[in-house]
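ok so i was messing around last nite and threw this chain in just to see what happens. nothing serious, just curious
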Amino acid sequence: MAEHDEFERLYKEHVDGIFRFIKQILGNDDEAEELTAEVFFRAYRSLSKLRNPNRARAWLYRIAYNLCMDELERRGKAVIVPLDEELKIAHPPAKGPSPQDVLEEEEIAAWVREVLIRLSPGHRTALILGEVEGLSNREIAEVMGKSPAAVKSLRQRARKAFKREMLRLLEKHGLTLDDLLKT
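result:
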C-alpha cells in the first residue's frame, strides 16, 4: 500500500510538469498525453528500483526525456514546441494588463517559441528543464545522462544560442533587444 501511495503522490506532484515538458519537446498535445501516460506506467512498474525518493523528479524527467528522444529519432527529425503560457514573459501591472500589453506579450511569446524551435534538441531540452521547469543542473544532468559540469556548460551555450537566434529574429523585423525589453 505504501508503494501505491508513493506513486500517487509522485503522479499528483509531477504529472503537469512532465506533460508540459513532453509537449514542449514534441509539440503535440495528443502525443504528450500518450507519452505522459507511458512515463507514469513505466515509473509505476519500476518504483521499487527508485533508491532515493529525493531524486524522483529527475528520474521521472529522465524517463520522459528518453521517450521524447526515442520519438524524435523515430520521426527522423526534431520538430518542436508550442510553449503556450509557460514562457510568456509577462509582468502585468497590478490592475491587470491592457489589451496592448496582452498583444505585446503574445508577440514576445511567439518569438520565444520561434527561437526555441531553431535550437538543437539538446539546447532546447536544457533550457526548458532549467528555465521553465526549474530543475537544477544536477537534476538536468541525471535527466540527460551528462555530468553537472557538462550541463552547466550546455546551459551557457544554450543561452548564447538563444540570444543569438533572438537577435537574428529581431534584426529580421528591424528591432533591437532594447526595443523588445521596453515592452
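not much to say yet. The longest helix spans residues 2-26.
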